[in-house]
Amino acid sequence: MITQTRIARWLIITLVSLTALMGLGFSASINKPEELPDIFAHHDITVETDQIIGKIMVAGGNAVVGGKVTDSVLVVDGNLVIQQAAKINGHIVVLGGSATIEPGAAVNHRPWVIAPKGHPLVPLIVSALLILGAISLLVFPALFWFVGHLCKKTSWYIPAKNILLAIEQRWPILYIAVSLFISALMLLAFSALAWETLFQKTMVLFDDSFVWLFRYFANPTLDKIMIRISDIGFGTSYIIMVIISFLLLTYLKRWRELGALMICLTGAAALSFLLKNLFQRPRPDVFRVVQEVSYSFPSGHAMASMCFYGMIAFLMMRTIPSWRGRLTVMTLAVALSVAIGISRIYLGVHYPSDVVAGYAAGSMWVAFCISLLMWWEQDRKENE
């Protein structure tokens, strides 16, 4: 039997884990050494021989490096010249240009160079990378469907299904435990990502490369489409859909589901505000299409979309008898959340690591809220 003491214990464990994560971030932010200056520019830049720079990102200009760069160098639609006295410790990426390394220069990593934008192969390469990414997002739902289709044809499918149904009826707490376990895994994923992104600085190359890929085919029409998609994540359209969901659940008198959804969305908003002000990561200052005033890490849109559409998908899936229907709902929810995250990167208000962190934090919270809803429902059955 699930008691109030057990659920209180789960709540305390979750809160202690979040507190430990925040304490780690606060301690690291206080004790971390003074950072070297970074260069983000839309014009030609030159690093003199006596300069020491953290990282360099130049869009639409050329870069001449004669000093020391302790982090990565990224040049988009421009050329890079590394002079003989230069020393670069991090990765070197030139997207849409050329890289020249003079004899005597100290470079720890071989430059990765894609030819200028006018080159006929570049649009094909970028398109292939984007198509490959889109296909990879569809692989997992298709794989689930294919495996499920094969399993239904096996001789052990019906016995296994009956065993799972018996477990659900006899030990429903196992389903709650699985939800809490998923929540804990997502919390660990978010912690690791926060550490690698903000304190170890290992996600810079990942962030900068994906920003360039998403912005390569930028145009006014695509800007408007991405703004609309972003609005579905946390804007006027999002608010309208939330209100409709609340009204529909109220009309159907599904009070526990309404309460779980309300806790999920309210908690996500509070958690997003708390984490943003804890880590205080500035937003990207290149390719900005829309303006935002809050901090960047994690993405509030990614977290809100994961919580809202994830919870709505869960509520819909449990009313659909067909596993194909449930898979369709899950696929649509994931695709919509991913599209919202991509729109935030395209609009220049988030790094890709911000969006991934938002997904991790949102998944953690929605899994916890689902386990809370399942506990409420099980407690009601036992009382009845």
UniProtKB/TrEMBL annotation:
Keywords: Membrane, Transmembrane, Transmembrane helix. Residues 261-370 form the Phosphatidic acid phosphatase type 2/haloperoxidase domain. SMART domains: acidPPc (SM00014). SUPFAM superfamilies: Acid phosphatase/Vanadium-dependent haloperoxidase. Signal peptide: none annotated. The chain crosses the membrane at residues 7-30, 121-151, 172-195, 232-251, 258-275, 295-315, 327-349, 355-376. Coiled coil: none annotated. This is Phosphatidic acid phosphatase type 2/haloperoxidase domain-containing protein. It comes from bioreactor metagenome. The lineage of its organism: unclassified sequences, metagenomes, ecological metagenomes.
